[in-house]
Specification:
about 200 residues, alpha+beta, four-stranded antiparallel β-sheet, 9 helices, about 40% helix, globular, binds flavin mononucleotide
Length: about 200
C-alpha cells in the first residue's frame, strides 16, 4: 500500500525480475530498444548531463570482437544473446550541455572544462543511467544480463578507438532461455542498509 506503482509492475521490474544467463532466439528489435531508451532518458542526471551512450552490437563481426574481450565465463552468454548493448560514458558529454541545460549554459565551462573531474562526473552519472537502462529493459518485458567481466581496455580499443567513450557495462538482452536464472541470493534487510539520523 505504501507503493504507488501497480503490483504487477513491481513484480516485472523487481520481485520477479532476474539477471538472465541464457536467452531464447527471439530477436530484440530496434523499436523495443528505442522504447526502452525513450522511457529511461527521463530519469535524472546531474545538470541533466545525460552522459550514457548505448552501442547495439548486432553484426556477427562486431559480436565476435566483443566476445573476444569478455571473461571466459561470460563468453557463451554474449555469444548466444539475441542482442548485446555496450553501455559507455561519453567523455565529451559537456559539449551537449548548453542544449540539455539551456537555462544555465555557463555550467559547461564552469564545471566541466577539465578532463579529470569531467570523467568522474560523467562516469558517475552514466552509471546511474546504466541502472535505469536495466530497469527499462525489464519494463519492455525482456531480461537483462548486465556484466562487467571483460577487458575494459580491450573493449575501449575495439569499439571506442578515438578515446572519447569508455565502457561501463555490457548488457545481454532478450527473452530468458532455459535455466536462465540462478536462485535468488539474499538481499540486505532494510535494517542492515538504512539508517535514520
Ligand atoms: C554491474 C554488474 C556487473 C555484473 N557482472 C557480471 C559478470 O561479469 N558476469 C556474470 O555472470 N554476472 C554478472 N552480473 C550479474 C550479477 O551477479 C547479478 O545481477 C546479481 O547476482 C543479482 O542476480 P539476480 O538478478 O538473479 O537476483 C553483474 C551484475 C551487475 C549489476
Amino acid at each position: 500500500m505504501a507503493l504507488a506503482l501497480d503490483p504487477a509492475a513491481q513484480d516485472l521490474l523487481f520481485r520477479e525480475a532476474h539477471t538472465a544467463n541464457t536467452f531464447t532466439d527471439e530477436p530484440v528489435t530496434e523499436e523495443q530498444i528505442q522504447a526502452v531508451y525513450d522511457l529511461v532518458k527521463f530519469a535524472p542526471t546531474a545538470f541533466n548531463q545525460s552522459p550514457l551512450r548505448v552501442t547495439l552490437v548486432r553484426s556477427p563481426e562486431a559480436r565476435e570482437r566483443l566476445v573476444a574481450q569478455m571473461a571466459e565465463g561470460n563468453r557463451p552468454k554474449t555469444s548466444s544473446a539475441p542482442l548485446t548493448a555496450i553501455l559507455s560514458v561519453d567523455l565529451d558529454f559537456h559539449e551537449r550541455l548548453p542544449e540539455l541545460f539551456p537555462h544555465a549554459p555557463h555550467i559547461k565551462d564552469a564545471f566541466f572544462s577539465e578532463a579529470a573531474p569531467r570523467e568522474a562526473a560523467g562516469t558517475f552519472n552514466a552509471t546511474l543511467q546504466a541502472g535505469y537502462f536495466v530497469l527499462g529493459v525489464r519494463a519492455a518485458g525482456l531480461a537483462a544480463g548486465p556484466m562487467t567481466g571483460y577487458d575494459a581496455d580491450g573493449v575501449n580499443k575495439e569499439f571506442f578507438g578515438d578515446g572519447k567513450q569508455k565502457v561501463l557495462m555490457v548488457v545481454n538482452i532478450g527473452k530468458p532461455g532455459e535455466g536462465a536464472y540462478s536462485p535468488r541470493s539474499p538481499r540486505l534487510s532494510y535494517e542492515d542498509a538504512v539508517t535514520t539520523v
